[in-house]
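COURSE: Structural Biology Practicum
ASSIGNMENT: Worksheet 4, Part C
STUDENT ID: 0417
INSTRUCTIONS: Below are two proteins. For each, the amino acid sequence is given first, followed by its structure token string. Answer the questions at the end about the second protein only.

PROTEIN I
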Amino acid sequence: MNRMIRCGLLLAASCWPALALAQAGAAAGTGDSPAAAKDGTIGEIVVTAQKRAENVQDIPLAITAVGGDTLRERQVNGVDQLVAVTPSINFGTYGGAARIAIRGIGFDLPDPGSEGRIAYHLDGVYVSRPSAQLGTFFDVDRVEVLRGPQGTLYGRNATGGSINVISKAPTEALSGYANLTVGNYGRVAVESAVSGSLSDDVTARLAVMSNNRGGYGKNEYTGNDIDDANQRGARASVRIKPADNLTTDLSADFYRENDHAYGIHYFGQYSPDIQLRAGVLGGTAPSKLRNLNSDFDPTNRRELYGFAGAVTWDLGPVTLKSISAYRHSQFRDVTDIDMTELPLSQFIFAEKAHQYSQELQLSGSFGNSNWLIGGYYFDEKVVGSAQVPSNLILNGGPDRYVNGFKVEGHLGTKATAVFGQLDLALSDAFKVILGARYNHETHSITDVFQLDNDRDYAPNAPLLPFPGFPRSDAVTDNVVTPKAGLEFKLNDDALLYATVSRGFKSGGYNLGLNVPAFKPENIWAYEAGLKLTTADRRLRANLAGFYYDYSNLQLAKVVNNNVVTENAGAAIIYGGEAEVTFLPFTGFQLDGALSVMHSEYRDFSSVDPADPNLGLQDLEGHRLVQAPDVTLTAGAQYGFAGPGGEIRIRGELNYRSRVYFTAFNIDSVGQARNTKFNAFLTWTSDDGHVSATIFGRNLTNKITKTGGLVNTVDFGSPISGSISPPRTFGFTLGYTI
């Protein structure tokens, strides 16, 4: 209760100045619709976060929307770089899986078939696989980041929020662009698109991308690059309008990687009393954090593609919309987990998945009220495997490479849901929000576990099941996720809101571990906020305070060679956020976002597999994984007339306090607080056709860890993980039709 009071006081204190500004804006009048930002005012951004088009400032939830032009100018060319433009978001990778967290809620450890807590959508289609969320970010019209549980409209695995990536739609007039980027580490990247009419009723768009780059580090043993990039992608879309009230959107996209990325880096020993096992046998760890010292180069092979069809039928009083989609993803990563040049082990991680989804929406309005009802179906099948072939010399045996540890299995999810939301206007200024979603899910597994120290290693050797395997099982969960709220418009430019909502993350199985399924986790979220734009549209301030009550929190850790997910008892998270944009005079902009947060586990005890001698540890009061207490982004930019066009200069900083990668809150298994700086210089021709940007990111060349874990005691419990890019700089030349 004391923490809830403190959270309320924090929100009240942060809202007080903005409330005063709102009253001043009301007294001055609301003015006309905003002009473009280059005219000295803040423009509107239209989003579809609530499955209808509306101004982002009119939505009673914490949301950040960033347009495609801003993303390109600031070199945000992947979901991992959204940390530079969005408050309360944290990002990392491990094994090529996106570890996205919002307000301390995210993806812990990669395991075949595992799912994140942030619902990632591409053009309205949920992309389930964390490994498939890194290859869809090109030809982007805008990105919408919704903070807080979105259980009513988005459903499963939106416990922490949702990221909606909206690609550019086909245009009737001929349009397009081509951008060429050249940078350090031998980077050459191309992104281009062309769009136009094929007939009176049909428009189409084709976008392609290519990104090639040398490695950020070296394999000291082979001398070859690691953490390089060889990426290709394409997307085709067609819009058919046989009638003014009927629109069909069809799309297909493809993406692949074939490089030496996502090799795990050596962060040191978990315990100074335990040596790296390979070091005892004469192996040598890499001399630099960015490097590896491995008897083979890491490999990364992944392929993604998908098809989607959306039909929108405007029937006058109501609108009917159908979204049908199929998505496929496949990857195979191989890296070294003994951390040395000795041929002692490999880690082979693979996953192949395909999903079908169907969503139906029926929506309408009456007066100032809006309503929506819908149904959803999702069917996913995943084949996953993880293997650690090893040399028996690790166990004091002969120098033989054997099949070792391997898990492999089929996981299935079938989910159905019905949902609805009503935003009921009781007056011109006051609305009541009521919504709910009923979720029915069935999870199934058929898997095999093997521990084979008898047969010589063969990539396709038949599995020898451990006792208790093969296993087949299924479990069904039913969850209701309601939402209720109030919104009050102080004037056309100021909105107060308060909401209570519930979210959930699906339950499931630990692959290769014959234990009952872990349960869904649930969260109750309480949020209040203020959205304000002053009458002269030179200041915009969005403030929010939140309190989360978490139960059955799913937490993953490595036990022997298995990734084990267990249900923590409970956790709480509370804090406040502020996003501010200020245009003191024409051409000059100040912007920033601050998040202050507190997180802690409640009623949770666990055994640290890297130090089992400590026994069962009480983790109450420990901070959640991927939950920094403070995040801050701040930027300043100035635009002025230059030779033949406009010049914009921008500088920005990004600060994050300490982050832990484990619930045991060990400093070495985490990242200390850090600050990074970026800078951009952009010229755009008077006619808008030609642009050029010089950019620099992470200018001080800060090395930060983005994800990590303690590996098995068989290798001496080394800490390993992923690291962020070094200082990068380059030049982008663009042409727009």
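PROTEIN II
(use this one for the questions)
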Amino acid sequence: MIATAWRVAGVGFSLLVILSAILLAGADPQVTSFPGTGAGDAFWTYDLRTDDLTVLLLAVVGVVSACVQVYSIGYLHERAASYTALVTLFTAAMVTVVVSDSLFLLLIGWEVMGACSYLLISHYWERRDARSGAVKAFLITRLADVAFLFGIFVLGLGYGTFRISELGSSPISPAALTTGTVLLLVGVVGKSAQVPLQTWLPDAMPGPSPVSALIHAATMVAAGVFLIARLYDVFVAAGTTLTVLAVIACVTMLFAALCAMAAVEVKRVLAWSTVSQLAIMFAGLSLGTADGRHAALFHLVTHAAFKGLLFLCAGVLLHQVGSAAFVVLRRHTRLGASRKAMPVTFGTMTIGLAALAGVPGFAGFFSKDAVVEAAWHQARDGSAVGWVVLVSVCLTAALTAFYCVRLWLWVFFRTPALAGAVDAFEDDAPMADVDDPATAKLRDAPWVMLAPLILLALGAIVLGYADGLHLNWVVAALTTVLAALGALPAYSLWRRGADPRPAVVEREFGVDAAYGKAVVVPVRWFAKLAVLGDRDVIGTYVRAAGRTGTLASQGFRLLQTGNVQTYLTFAVAGVVALAILAGVIGA
């Protein structure tokens, strides 16, 4: 009964967010202030802001959250009340970030999202990988958020205000501007899992699939893109920071795409895909132009639709098969069983992968082309950043098509060549979150789970036409050719039943292991050193002081004989000793 009440409340809150976006659409931008606090010159109020960007993100958050809440009714049944409460709080935290016109109010929503993500990723707390993934996500994002907090203070004190709408209205030293924006960028890199703080997001996959959909599509990782878009004028004024952002984005999109090409578990492929697609959005923002900002936000909206769809489809596979590792799924698809038994899941996942790969006519095609076109305009004007972004996004488009086609074929189709070729995956196919490990007869999910898939699939198609269908045919032809060039090798490998993965890519370039040696091992040694210092140095003095007091009390205890004659003897001896001492001093 309690779980049902929470589910109704969760769906109701998501619908309220959607209604708010509808009511605010077309309204004049407005800032509403509430009483604040502070000390000395550092004073801030809690302000809310409504404008076009607010409406856009409220719509995205509300729709994806509503789909996740409805989908979860059929997907998850254990600890449902706490799960739904946390998802609702998670959504409310993202809404707080979106509507904030105060850096500190935004920080509150930012940090609450981090806490909720930790609790939701570890929902299956009885599993070791869920616990470790949650801790890893929490520690990495909290580390980045320390810099984020300092960045808020640097910009707020530098501009003399903590209102986002007033930042840039007064002069600030270039050093303070660059320092503040770089510190904020560190927080964004951590929250959006960009290089070098990218390792937490793929390891967060043991959480429930609806949580993954919410994190990857509408909250948490999308918050970084929103923040830079919200403070865009400030970041544009800091040219050095935008250059740093461009370098990070270009490295991240290629690195993550290569990792996705080697992953053998559906959710891990999608996780690396999210890292790569977010980098494309950051690359658009790094151009420092209105077209770049528009393209990045356009891609953010379309990505929310098809990535939320893909994670929910992965959840159906987990729900029905018990795993989304390629090797396990292939055992059910030798004769195309999953494709025939789950036609809605197959159809909607095909739409999602087509949108992700940039197939013409789907939403991802239009939004990715918008980023490419914005980069081309900058490159044509002689911008080095424009050229780097253009080349990186084009290469990433080809790599994206490769891993999308690879995933689609290996999961849903029977390899024409060797029937046992899939066994090559046996040794490295990790189990994903298991709702029901029994491999019962395949069938499509309940309609309460399929309805959100159909809605998001429609979004993955029609959202591409919501931008007025502005299409540069040269760019469209280029990206289509690149997608084909990426898809053909994947198809060829599948036809031959081969899936070679270079060891360095398979291990995701060994970054996690390197971080373990460079960070985890030294921290453990310092922790052991601190324990030794506390136990063997400070503790020794404490124990010695206590032992000395104990021995002294035992010595004095021996003097307490109860014999009056002994007491008088000691008294006389004491008087004589004092007299002798007085005489010596007097002489």
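ANSWER KEY EXCERPT:
Q1: The longest helix spans residues 511-559.
Q2: Strands lie at 30-39, 42-50.
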